[in-house]
TrEMBL record:
InterPro entries: HIPP47/16. PANTHER family: HEAVY METAL-ASSOCIATED ISOPRENYLATED PLANT PROTEIN 47. Residues 76-98 are annotated as: Disordered. This is HMA domain-containing protein. Residues 76-96 have a biased composition (Basic and acidic residues). It comes from the Eukaryota. Transmembrane segments: none annotated.
Amino acid sequence: MKQKIVIEVQMHCSKCRSKALKIAAVADGIVDFVGLEGPEKDKVVVIGHNVDSSGLTSCLRKKVGHANIIKIEEVKPEEKKREEKKPEEKKPDEKMPCIQYPYGPYPYFDKVFVYEDDYPNNRNCCQM
């Protein structure tokens, strides 16, 4: 059940407002929207599923200031009006032209020459 909870909190500065919004954002349940209402921005609005309103109010009392629950109401999903779909005119399928690109050049390999030393041991050196 999606519900809208409005809680009035005594907030004196912008720091208290941001602190109250942070507390409301991490409330138990699935929170969809958190915001401030009222001319003095002293009402915290929370919209979500299975949000614990009494737990949220007590947490706001402990960390921000005096808090009262103003109202809790169920939010009904908006009914979407179905528009009549007009059948679109079918266009004949346009065939894509077949494009064949030329082959790339063959890879070029350098010739590799291997020279082997006739004398694997150095014969110029003499050991005594």
